[in-house]
Amino acid sequence: MDEKKVEAIKNRPIPTSVKEVQAFVGLASFYRKFIHNFGTIASTMTDCLKKGTFLRGNKQQDNFELLKEKLSNNPVLKLLDFSQPFEVVVDACRSGI
User: Fold this and answer.
1) Residue 91 falls inside a structural domain
2) What are the residue boundaries of the Reverse transcriptase/retrotransposon-derived protein RNase H-like domain, all occurrences included (predicted)?
3) CA-CA distance, 44 to 17, in Å (whole number)?
4) Helix, strand or coil for residue 2?
5) How many domains does the chain fold into?
């Protein structure tokens, strides 16, 4: 991710309206594949929108900060360099995928 985007995420204030929560969760959703337990973390923020008003509590604020941290400190994802040695680790199960 671009350094300017990372800084913008780090400096983003806690949402104070329904639109701001929707915008932040939408931004974070773009990277959901790279954030372990994204749905669980984001659900506290989206659940508070169900009544049409944004009710912010400690859990929503903690998960907002957690998502900001995960978005700005995610490991580097890049294409494999086949000229360099690498190791493949597989997690497999006989009864499922």
Assistant:
1) no
2) 58-97
3) 15
4) coil
5) 1
